[in-house]
Amino acid sequence: MSAEAPAGGTGLSGTPGEAASASSASSAGTVGTVGTAGTAGPVGSGTTPVATLGTRALAPVFVRLKLSLLRNGLRQSSGRTAAYVVSVVFALLIAAGQLLGLILLRGNNGAGTLVVVLTALVALGWAMLPLFFPSGDETLDPSRLVMLPLRPHALIGALLAASLVGIGPLFTLCLVLGSAIAVAHGGAAIALSVVVVPLTLLVCVALSRAVAAANIRLLTSRKGRDLAVLSGLVIAVGIQFVNFGVQRLSEAGGLSALDPVADVLRWLPPASAIGAVDSVSDGAYGRAALQLLLSLAALAALMYSWQRSLVKLMTAPDGSTIAAAGPARKESASGLGRLLPEGRTGTVMQRSLWYVWRDPKTKAAWITSLAIGLIVPLVNALQGNGSIYLACFAAGMLGIQMYNQFGQDTSAFWMVALTISSTRDAYLELRARAFALLVITLPYSALVTILTAALLDDWRALPEALGLSFALLGAMMATGAVASARFPYSIPQDSAYKNVAPGQGGLAWISILGGMLGGALLCAPVIGLTIGLHVSDTEGLTWLVLPVGTAYGALIAWAGVRLAAPQTASRLPEILTAVSKG
After folding, report:
1. pTM of the model
2. How many CB atoms lie within 10 A of CB 254?
3. What would the pLDDT profile of 487-510 be if each residue is shown by its tens digit?
4. Which of these ranges, 124-138, 183-197, 243-257, 544-558, has the smallest mean pLDDT?
5. Residue 288: which of 380, 373, 195 has the closest Cα?
C-alpha cells in the first residue's frame, strides 16, 4: 500500500478493495481526477506531494468503493448472492410493513410513546451491531486507510456518507420516517420532521461508527471474534425479553405501561429528536427546541469522538504489537491447577476447563446453554405459569455439553489418542472430562432450581426437583460419553456459524437427539418414584427423591463412562478421522 499520491491524484490507489473497485473504475470515473494535489518538491529533495481532499471530494469515492466491494463480494458465490437477495427482500417487506403500520398509528394516543421507544431500540441496535459483527462491513475498519494521506475530518465525512448505503440505513429511514409521520400534526411539526428524520438517521450511523472506531483493535482480536460468536446468544436472549415484555404490556392494558420509560427516553438522543416533533405537535416549542438541541449535540459529540479515535488509530502503535515485542512472562501454575487432583485426571480437567474459557466455539456453546437453561424456567416462573420441574431444563441443556467430547479437539485429537493405550486410559480420559463438566453443571443446576423455587415460592418441592435435576444430569453424562465414542463429528473452526462439518449433520442429530431421549428414559426410575410418592398421598416423603436421585445420577454416569471406555479405546482411528474433517 503506497502512502504517496502522484501529482494530480488523491492517493487512493492503495485503498482497500482496490481490486474490487477496479471493475467499476470505467463507469465511476478516474479517482485521480478528484481533488487538488499539493506541490511536489524537487527531485531528490525527499518531499512527496500531499493530496488535499475535502469530504465533498472523498464521499463519492467511498460510496463507489463500498458498492464495488458489495458487488464483487456477491460474485464470489451464488449462495451468498441468494442469501443477500433474500435478506434484502425480507428487510424491505418488514420496512414497508412498519412504515405502513406507523402511518396507520397516526392519531392514536399511544403513538408518541411507541415511536420514542422504537427509535431508542433501533439506536441501541446500531450501537451494538459493530461489537458482534465487526467484519460485516469492510469499511468499518479505518485501520486499512492508515497509510493514505487523508485528513481525519474529511475521512469521517466520507465514511459517514458510505455508511448511509445499505439495508440497515434504509430500514432505519423507514422506521424514523414512519415515526415522524405518526406524531407530526400541524405545519410546524411537519417542517421540523424534514430536519429530524435525517438527523436521527445520522445519529444512529455516527453512533455505530464511533463505537466501531473506538474498539476496532479489540474487535479484530481473539476477544472480538468471541463477541461475534456470541451474537446469536444475544439475539436469542433479546427475543426472550421482547416476548416477556409484549406479554407484560398485554396484561397491563396496552402502550400506557410504557409511558414512564418513554418519558425518560424522549430526552435521550436520538429519540429526543422524534420527541421534539411530538412536542411541537403539542405546542411545547421550548421543550421541542431543547430536545432537538440534545440530538444535534449528540451528533457533534459522536463525530468528535469518532475523529479522535481515528487520529489515535492512525498515529498510536498497536498495543498487541508492543506486548508481543516485550519480554515473555514466566508461566506459573494457576490457582485452578493447584485445586485439581494430580495425574491424568487433573491434567484433562484443566485442559477441558481451558477449552471452555478460551475456545470461541466451546465458550459460545457453554454460554448459550447456561443462559437458556436459566431463562426458560425463570421467565416462565415470572409469567406465573411456570413449574419448579422446569428447572430440570438447565440440567438437560448443560448435559448436552458432554456430547461430542472429542470433536472440540478437532485434528489435535491425535495427541490425546497417543496417550490412550488401554481401556483404563480411555476410562480416565472420559471420567476426567465428565468431572470438568460437573464442576460447572452441578452447582449451576442447583442454583437454577433454587431460584425457580424462590420465584414460585414452592420450597416444599425443592428437594425432589433437585433430585430429578441431578438424576437427569447423570443420565446425560452417561449417554454423552457413549455418544462421544460412537458418533463423533468434527466442529469447523473456520466459521463462527457452522457447528458441524458438511456431511456430518445427520450424525450430529442422531448423537444429540438419541442421547437426550436415552437420558430421559434412564431417568424413568427416579421420575416414577416421584410420581408414586405424589399419587400414594405420601408427599411428606418426597424429600427422599433428593438422595435417591443424586445417588442414581452418580451411578448411571459411572456406568455410562465405563461402557464408553472400551469403545473409545478400540475406535481411536475412526474417532480421529471423524473429528478431523472440519
Report:
1. 0.58
2. 12
3. 888 877 655 555 666 656 666 677
4. 243-257
5. 195
Q: For all residues of the chain together, what is the average pLDDT? A: 78
Contact 210, 302 (CB under 8 A): yes
- What are the backbone dihedrals phi and psi of residue 484, each rounded to the nearest 5 degrees, phi first? -65, -35
pLDDT of res. 205: 92
With vertex at residue 130, the alpha carbon angle to CA 126 and CA 135, rounded to the nearest 5 degrees, is 140
Helix (H, G, I), strand (E, B) or coil at 166: coil
Beta strand pairing status for 36-37 and 51-52?
Answer: antiparallel
Cα separation, 392 vs 466, in Å, equals 8
Q: What is the pLDDT of residue 31?
A: 37
Residues 6 or more apart whose CB falls under 8 angstroms from that of 316 comprise none
CA dihedral 565, 360, 80, 240 (to 10 degrees): 100
Q: Count CB atoms within 10 A of the CB of residue 472.
A: 28
Question: Can you give the length of the chain in residues?
Answer: 582
Which three cell numbers mark 55?
469530504
Q: What is the pLDDT of residues 246-256, one digit of tens each?
A: 666 666 556 67
Q: Residue holding cell 460474485?
A: 75
Grid coordinates in use for 420? 490412550
DSSP H/E element including 395: helix 392-399
